[in-house]
Amino acid sequence: MSLRVADPEPGIRLVTIDRPERRNALDRATYAGLSAAFAAAGADETVRAVVLTGVGGCFTAGNDLRDFQDVETDGDSPGLTFLKALRGCPKPVVAAVEGHAVGIGTTLLLHCDLAYAGDGARFRLPFTALGLSPEGGSSYLLPLIAGTKRAAELLMLGEPFGAAEAAAAGLINAAVPQGAALDTALARVRALAALPPVSIAATKRALRRGHDDVVARTLAEEAQVFHGLRRGPDAQAAFAAFLRR
């Protein structure tokens, strides 16, 4: 199993990426599991809030390039299907980040309601280095929350950055002591679970209403460009070099 789903307390759903041997990189099976987990949480009336995290002191190293290199692109990709399920979940989603959060491991945070990271966490958006382009709605949402100059720096240069920088860019709510991200996230979801669910759901809808249409268009347009580049020579050379390591 590459994913663990549990209910550690009443009203709380904990979704944990569990591929420590691959730094929790996301393959087809993990994407399918995540999509199903968020759809199930959204439909389960006993679930008040969801926490997303990874095992072994690592959030996720992003797409598993061994699996991703030859992914089919007829219809939505596994990653896009997951992002739509995450964004469509009506329950509040809180991310707990430790260690690496690479590529989609960073962009998925744009679709979580709250996010906390240990101060040792390292984020990166390495799309240009891989011959790719932004995904996950980041070309719209990151300038919106971080400003155009900071978003350009993060997306064009693709350099690693830490939890404090992620907080300053609006990707996370706060940096917390290393190892404390999950406890912090659980404390936040306990608070959310104690509030009237109809009020929380209405607030979540209201917060997103003004952006839903443009985010949906951005996800689709980004995916078309991204997968066109993925099949190109620059991306294929970058994947091959990475897999030779």
Index terms:
2-enoyl-CoA Hydratase, Chain A, domain 1; 16% strand; three-stranded mixed sheet; 245 residues; six-stranded mixed sheet; single chain
Please tell me the total number of domains.
1
Largest beta sheet: strand ordering: 1-2-3-4-6-9
> How large is the count of helical segments?
11
Q: How much of the residues is beta strand, in percent?
A: 15-25%
Sketch the topology as an H/E string, one letter per element. Answer: EEHEHHEEHEEHHEHEHHHH
The CATH C-level class name? Alpha Beta
The major sheet is characterized as: 6 strands, mixed
Under CATH, the topology can be stated as: 2-enoyl-CoA Hydratase, Chain A, domain 1
Low-confidence segments: none
**Can you tell me the CATH architecture?**
Alpha-Beta Complex
Number of strands: 9
Overall pLDDT metric = 95
How would you sum up the global shape?
A: globular
Q: Percent helix among the residues?
A: 40-55%
| CATH superfamily annotation | 2-enoyl-CoA Hydratase, Chain A, domain 1
How much is the radius of gyration in Å? 17 Å
Structural class: alpha/beta
How many angstroms separate the termini? 26 Å
Kindly describe this structure.
This protein has helices spanning 28-43, 65-68, 78-88, 104-107, 138-146, 148-157, 163-168, 181-193, 197-209, 212-230, 233-243, and strands at residues 3-9, 12-17, 49-54, 93-97, 100-102, 114-118, 122-124, 161-162, 174-176. It is α/β, with parallel strands linked by helices and 245 residues long. The protein has a single domain, classed as 2-enoyl-CoA Hydratase, Chain A, domain 1, CATH 3.90.226. Helix 1 packs parallel to helix 3, helix 5 packs across helix 6 (148-157) and helix 5 (138-146) crosses helix 10 (212-230). The chain is globular, with a radius of gyration of 17 Å.
